[in-house]
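#lab-general

N.A. 3:47 PM
ok so I finally got the sequence cleaned up, no stray characters, all 293 residues accounted for. can someone with queue access submit it? mine expired

B.Y. 3:52 PM
send it over

N.A. 3:53 PM
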Amino acid sequence: LALTVVVLVVFLSSKYYIRSIIVPVAEITEKAQRIAAGSYGSQIQTRYDDEVGELAQTINEMSIQLNQNEKMQTEFISSLSHELRTPLTAITGWSETLLSSEELDEGTRRGVKIIHRETERLTEMVLSLLDFTRIQDGRMTLNIEQTDIRSEFEDTVFMYGSRLSEEGISLKYLDNDDDIPEISCDPQRMRQVFLNILNNAVKHGGEGKQIDAGITYKDDHVVIKIRDYGPGIPMDELGLVKKKFYKGSSKARGTGIGLAVSDEIVQMHGGELTLENALAGGTLVTIRLPATQ
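B.Y. 4:20 PM
back already:
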């Protein structure tokens, strides 16, 4: 009888412990993980008046505050980007006008070229910031059409390659005989992705003085690979480089959102963008796009 009473007490105590502590803590943990992953504003249903309930309420308040901060940040970036576009357009236009003049001496022309190049760089940063705010607000859309993706990629590589040759960097296109089918995609957005990846390869791996680029067709996917011969990515940063505003230990200039925007565009196409360190050094970026959607 005593043993039965003890077993019953243990059973009831365990049941109470599971219902009052383990289950609510598991729920709180799951919601906290979602908030940490970026689901700001998520709320935990508080059914308890004890310490567990206080913990849930604290996390709810934190989630609301994070959501408000995220909205303020996005609105500020969007407003600032729009304000910067007008003066940058004017500077670009006037610098092009000055460069078309034959009355500039060599020193002045060199200075105007620098102004024009840096203005273009700032314009690209502003456009990336605007794309970022569109992604955050869910306003980014795709203009899907049947596209010769090989042609789009090759045009981007050859155009960018002539620019890099002036900086002493060789952009090598790895040609092949694969029959690359047309795919349904937004060609303008995909060109943006290609340029972002190539820009990153120059910024972080340009010291290797070579970049390889190729496109193949495998397992119903168009596979695009871009590789630099720089120092690569530290292993502890490899899983973080696609996060927004993350720059890690890199000293290269930039906003830290180019890869995040590119990754989002590729995902909107049903594809995948991955980064890894190449075996012989450098960084390899792989883009996989489904050929049928």
